[in-house]
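Q: What changes when 2-acetamido-2-deoxy-beta-D-glucopyranose is included in the input?
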Amino acid sequence: MRPLGTAVATSFLSTLLLFLHLTASFPSNDMSNLSNCNHNLSCGALTDISYPFTGAQRPPDCGPQEFQLKCNIVDSVTTLMFKSLPYRVTRVNQTSQTLRLSRSDFYDDLPCTHLSNSTTFDNDIFSLGSNNENLTLFYGCKNLGDFFEEKFKFSFVEDKFKFSCPMPGGSEEEGFFKVGDHPPMNSTCHASFQVPFLRSRAQQLQAEGSSLLGEVLKEGFDVRYSDPYSADCQKCSKHSGRQCGFDVKPICICNDHLCPVKSSNRKRLIIGVTLASGAVLVIFVGCWILVVKQVKKRKSALVQSQGLPAVTPTSSNGLATSTNFFRATPSLANLKSDLDKGSTYLGVRVFSYNELEEATNCFDSSKELGDGGFGTVYYG
Ligand SMILES: *[C@@H]1O[C@H](CO)[C@@H](O)[C@H](O)[C@H]1NC(C)=O
Ligand SMILES: *[C@@H]1O[C@H](CO)[C@@H](O)[C@H](O)[C@H]1NC(C)=O
Ligand SMILES: *[C@@H]1O[C@H](CO)[C@@H](O)[C@H](O)[C@H]1NC(C)=O
Ligand SMILES: *[C@@H]1O[C@H](CO)[C@@H](O)[C@H](O)[C@H]1NC(C)=O
Ligand SMILES: *[C@@H]1O[C@H](CO)[C@@H](O)[C@H](O)[C@H]1NC(C)=O
Ligand SMILES: *[C@@H]1O[C@H](CO)[C@@H](O)[C@H](O)[C@H]1NC(C)=O
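A: The predicted holo structure follows.
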């Protein structure tokens, strides 16, 4: 019985090890950059920026994709993309979870731009701070100078709110701005959009007009952010030395590896392993009982065929274990050792249990040839 038991135990163990290995190594990406997640991001005036932001010294796997910043090495300008539009990041406060942003498209020739998209931050992650005010900008306007004609429509357009932008080909187009919201005026201006700015500048801008407009636009506006995965990160980083990361889902990094799987996953693993071992044990015991039963039948058959006094097993229902059985019948104990050696018995080839087991595939019923008076006959 021992060789069979060893074989089963070995295959069971190797299956278990393979299972453990597969479970432990998920997700199995190239994590060679994870060791850098303990670095902070520094770019120009921005210093010591940590999770959830990534960029520069912090590889992309160190935080959610929405918080990916780009640091231009040449001019140390940090950029955040939102809804496909680039924004300059001039301040990050990770305590109040706010960013100060300004539109990158304004920087070449303020307040002129080739983009006429309104700035909106309105999702679960980014939202406009409550300290902003709206600015409505109009571009490509006709007849703004003709104050008489447009008198009623543009009564609010004082000269100080007007500006001009260069056009391709050397000409100029006129524009103006208004503090606050204003509906588009398609017939007069071909483009208009809204941009937030700091409310603290509203009065000054209203008083000084377009001479201050460039500065105010450059200064930008505040945006609040919230990391939807912060609960996972808190769970991870309450253990010292652990870093939060992100790879499709939140990950927890120990040094340069994923931290070992814990709690619910581990529980599930243990339950799975227990069930699997239980199943293997049931199969093993079942097979063993079958073997014992068959061996008993075979033995009485062998003994009878050699003209020896038939030894009737003390219990023919097959429930007695083989050890009890052999201990109870000393003459059969000798027979057992002979059978184990696979020797001949009175000139007849006697197969060992193991050989019989192997030949009949653990007494597989598909290998049965027939059921005789001396036991079941197998093919093998
Ligand atoms: C990274 O910055 C945080 C503050 O944001 C600071 O507590 C931490 O010590 C910094 N880590 C390193 C490695 O500089
Ligand atoms: C590791 O990060 C660097 C830049 O931070 C990048 O160039 C490189 O491709 C990354 N390697 C892997 C395997 O992700
Ligand atoms: C910006 O606006 C233009 C039209 O004014 C539009 O074609 C483009 O898709 C917009 N871009 C984004 C990122 O919304
Ligand atoms: C960040 O915000 C907190 C809370 O609003 C404030 O106390 C702190 O002064 C701010 N830090 C900087 C550098 O502005
Ligand atoms: C600014 O305009 C947006 C729409 O473009 C609007 O949702 C927001 O409430 C306005 N903010 C203020 C302070 O008026
Ligand atoms: C102006 O154009 C916008 C789209 O660009 C349109 O939704 C709006 O109805 C137009 N307004 C008028 C008064 O024509």
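Observations recorded in class: The mean pLDDT is 75.
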